[in-house]
Amino acid sequence: MAESRAAIRYAKAVLSLATDNGSAEAVNADMKQIANAIAENIELKAVMLSPVVRSSDKKSVLVSIFKDANTATVNLIDVLIANKRLSLLGDVAVKYTQLYDQLRETQIAKVTSATPLSKELEEKVLAKVKELTGKTTEIENTVDESILGGFILRVGDLQYDASIANKLNNLKREFTLN
């Protein structure tokens, strides 16, 4: 809990600084890249969390991976190292993107489908989500063949499951209960 609050504080500070400098969008791109890299790369995550690896080595790894990072992003890494909080970098990156989306009044709609969404279907989903929530929305499409067909839509705390796998599971439950 304390780490989560600290991550939010760092994210707010970086967002404020980046907004003042006019580089909030560039920093948001950096933060998305950092969050994805840490989440997807087990070795990078291990290096970030390791108490054995020196901070200077961690910084050189991060700087080499994120060569084109904005100065605000590099400064954040320096501050986290100085405060011995580099392990929070992934959380700070996630919180930053959430705060940035709130600031822009946009949201992410996560659509899981059995096949990639066509442009036409993507536009229909965007229009429907905007109609329901009143906010500008970006779609993040994930392909999961295990749902067989249909889609699962997640926007914020709401989830709509129109997948074939879900309907089959519901039928299975009905038959086993009767």
From TrEMBL:
Indicate yes or no for the key word Repeat.
Answer: no
The protein's location, in the record's own words, is:
Cell membrane; Membrane
Instruction: Give the keywords, sorted.
Output: ATP synthesis, Cell membrane, CF(1), Hydrogen ion transport, Ion transport, Membrane, Transport
Listed InterPro entries: ATP_synth_OSCP/delta_N_sf (IPR026015), ATPase_OSCP/dsu (IPR000711)
Q: Which SUPFAM superfamilies match?
A: N-terminal domain of the delta subunit of the F1F0-ATP synthase
| Superkingdom as given in the UniProt entry | Bacteria
Question: Is-annotated flag, keyword Iron?
Answer: no
- State the membrane topology: Peripheral membrane protein
In terms of HAMAP family, this protein maps to: ATP_synth_delta_bact
Instruction: Outline what the protein does.
Output: F(1)F(0) ATP synthase produces ATP from ADP in the presence of a proton or sodium gradient. F-type ATPases consist of two structural domains, F(1) containing the extramembraneous catalytic core and F(0) containing the membrane proton channel, linked together by a central stalk and a peripheral stalk. During catalysis, ATP synthesis in the catalytic domain of F(1) is coupled via a rotary mechanism of the central stalk subunits to proton translocation.
* Protein family membership: Belongs to the ATPase delta chain family.
What protein name does the entry list?
ATP synthase subunit delta
Q: Which gene encodes it?
A: atpH
